[in-house]
Amino acid sequence: MNGEAVPPPHRGKAEAGAGEQLALCGAGAAAGAETGIGTGTVAGTGTGTEAGAGTGAGAAAGFGAGAEAEAGSLTPQVPPTARVEVPGPEVSRPEAPGPEAPGPEERVARAWLTRVLEPGDEVGGRWVRELGPADLVRRLRAGDRPLAGVRAGRWAGLCARAAAADPGRDLAAAAENGARFVVPGEPEWPSQLDDLGDARPIGLWIRGRPSLRMWALRSVAVVGARACTPYGAHVAAGLAAELAERGWVVVSGGAYGIDGAAHRGALGAGGATVAVLACGVDRPYPRGHARLFGRIAEQGLVIGELPPGDHPTPSRFVLRNRVIAALTRGTVVVEAARRSGSLSTARAARRLGRFTMGVPGPVTSGLSTGVHQLLREEAVLVTDAAEVVELVGAMGELKETPEGPFLPRDLLRADVRRVLDALPARGVAPVAEIAREAATTPDDAVARLYELRSLGHVERHGDGWQLTRHAVMSARAGAGPP
Q1: Model confidence over 163-189: pLDDT tens digits?
Q2: What does the alpha-carbon distance between residue 126 and residue 132 come to, in Å, rounded to a whole number?
């Protein structure tokens, strides 16, 4: 909500004053309304309007067909710079422009539309934006002539869906399963989903106690192939566990393979994870992950666009991926063939301006060809959580520069190290030969050899010198590619 509610010092006067304002707007309202500022509306917080006024600050009282028919809208139009008078001490401030908080009628209408419109339907999203959810529901229920952008056959199908929809039943079923319905404009709604434009979800059904908006602020998607290899499952689980330990929320689709491994990795580390489903949140799919979804709902969140009891389809899986991409700061693809659905998540993330990352796999594996293609385009190669956080985290969250193992010979001066390198790996060498290989004099070579002997690198045998066993093992450990 834009602005903030200012509670009056004397509640009785505030209620009376609010009632007078509503009466002046042409709508009879009973006592129990408070005057709210910040959204430019007068909010009815009690019951008693003749048309069944709703509740909630910032929402207009009198939602519903009866109120509209008798008195019209109860929302007084307050200019952006108007002064709102409140009984008691005068409070005056310019109101910030922005959408009002959704009222009860809009929430019910949006719940209705999740049963009617398919996820990601941009035409339907445009109708919602232009007409409003409540008016669109009335048009669909009345079966009026088709709206712009749809053929008569599809319009008839949508009207048939609207006639069969029962949002009260869906909301009750959600409550029975410990779920809630969140719509745009409410405090828990993640504003980054608005980047989807008209393809934004109508609303989200959520199981779990945490706030989705708060969790989405620091989240990363980990997705990949369903038929993954042991390598992919190991990498996904380890990556998710490391991200969880760093305080990041792991988001995935709950499917077999990489998705399931990512969820389990985060749960195993005692971290947070969110499963975005392509079906109702009370209808776990795949069924083999029923226990996993139960654990996620207890420790994290299970969310979806479809109402309770609705089933998944192939197209809904693909459309679900746009929510995963928009919800998170970046998407990591662990394993994916060229036609893997997880690639659609990465491409959606790229279109939305999110970070796209990929974990490379064996060049001989067909399940890594899609990831390698992403890396050839604009994705960033990552191998662990530190590299992911360096990309999606705040400024200064940099990965430490990796270094090789520390060896005792690294502490030697350059001239001493040259003499050490001049000794053969096996056998004894005379001083003259060592001096020649080290490009120094025999006397200097002897001085350096005695230094090396005191440090345990070499030992003397007669007139010659050789490496100790410890020095040989250290040299082998420090050997790298040329």
Answers
A1: 999 999 999 999 999 999 999 999 999
A2: 9
- The two tokens of residue 192 are 């980054």
Q: From residue 422, how far is each of 79, 327, 414, 430, 465 by CA, in Å?
A: 87, 60, 12, 11, 11
Is there a contact between 420 and 452 (Cβ–Cβ < 8 Å)?
yes
Torsion region of 273: left, alpha or beta (phi above 0 gives left; psi -120 to 50 gives alpha): beta
- CA 358 to chain CA centroid, Å, is 17
Please tell me whether the peptide bond between 408 and the residue prior to it is cis, using omega within 30 degrees of 0: no
Which pTM was predicted?
Answer: 0.68
HSE, CB side, 13 Å, CA atoms: give it for residue 102: 22
Residues 132 and 140: their CA atoms lie apart, in Å, by 12
Amino acid at 272: A
In the chain, what are the helix, strand and coil shares in percent, each to the nearest 5?
45, 10, 45
Helix spans in 307-397 (H): 314-327, 342-351, 369-376, 385-392
Listed in order, strand segments (DSSP E) in 227-324 are: 249-252, 273-277, 301-304
Structure tokens at 331: 């998407």
What tens digit of pLDDT does each residue of 101-120 get? 788 899 999 999 999 999 99
Closest CA to 247 of 348, 356, 393: 393
